[in-house]
Design goal:
Layout: E1 13-17, H1 22-33, E2 37-42, H2 45-57, E3 61-66, H3 72-86, E4 91-94, H4 110-138, E5 141-146, H5 159-179, E6 184-190, H6 197-202, H7 219-225, E7 236-238
Parallel strand pairs: 1-2, 1-4, 2-3, 4-5, 5-6, 6-7
Length: 247
């Protein structure tokens, strides 16, 4: 992949939600290659186990468990399992998301609306709240929320997905202000058009070979997980074409 630096994240424990596919998998892989201890969660055991096997074959220190980030019980179990395995959490990547139907607000199904908001926004809240129980006492941590371009500018037929991402951008800003005195930073990242199953569902007529791959967009996630980004908080980054700021 070429974007990670060996041992850049040595001594770092990262928890990545939605880590069994797409962007989450690429982030987890990059973190492991950079020396982090990585814990991932995903909804499906079969996908999760395949990713864990793949990452272990390249020498990554990885573990994980299946779970639903929209369930408070599952969230407690996920974070507790991370703590049991690695003892702490330094980096939380709130990546797990549902797309939901591409439908107008007038016709949007209530059940789908509630499910998308529960996973995409409430899930990030639950995961963050639980991870902060560890981050606050250690006065160190990085929370990275995976947002979207449709969470910045309203577009038709994006429904609950867009609303959840607008909420995630605001959630990030609130966190950054609340945590700025305790050494914990919070930032959002818009991946941009990326070659994933979710993107293919949203744009079925699009040629995926014209898009960036998940591996292409990991540099900003590596930066935000590393000590290079200490003091950077409350920002909203674009992953595509991102370049590390000059020191």
């Amino acid at each position: 992949m070429g974007s990670e630096i060996p041992n850049k994240l040595a001594g770092t424990v990262a928890l990545v939600t939605g880590g069994s596919r797409g962007i989450g998998r690429a982030i987890a892989s990059a973190y492991a290659r950079a020396g982090a201890k990585v814990f991932i969660c995903g909804r499906r055991n079969d996908e999760l186990n395949r990713v864990l096997s793949d990452l272990r074959r390249i020498g990554g220190q990885v573990d994980g468990t299946a779970g639903d980030v929209g369930s408070s019980e599952d969230v407690k179990r996920i974070v507790r399992s991370t703590m049991d395995r690695y003892g702490t959490v330094h980096v939380l990547v709130n990546n797990a998301s549902l797309l939901g139907p591409r439908e107008s607000i007038a016709r949007y199904p209530r059940e789908a609306w509630e499910d998308v908001i529960r996973v995409n926004l409430t899930g990030a809240f639950l995961m963050t709240q639980e991870a902060l129980k560890t981050m606050l006492p250690q006065r160190h941590g990085s929370i990275i929320n995976v947002s979207s371009g449709v969470g910045r500018v309203g577009r038709p037929r994006w429904g609950a997905y867009a609303v959840s991402k607008f909420g995630l951008e605001g959630f990030t800003q609130i966190l950054a202000e609340e945590l700025k005195e305790v050494g914990i930073r919070a930032n959002a990242v818009n991946p941009g058009p990326t070659r994933t199953e979710m993107r293919a569902s949203a744009y079925p007529d699009e040629d995926p070979m014209t898009l960036s791959t998940p591996d292409d967009i990991v540099p900003v996630f590596l930066y935000l997980a590393s000590d290079d980004s200490i003091g950077v908080s409350g920002k909203s980054f674009d992953a595509q074409g991102w370049l590390k700021p000059a020191v």
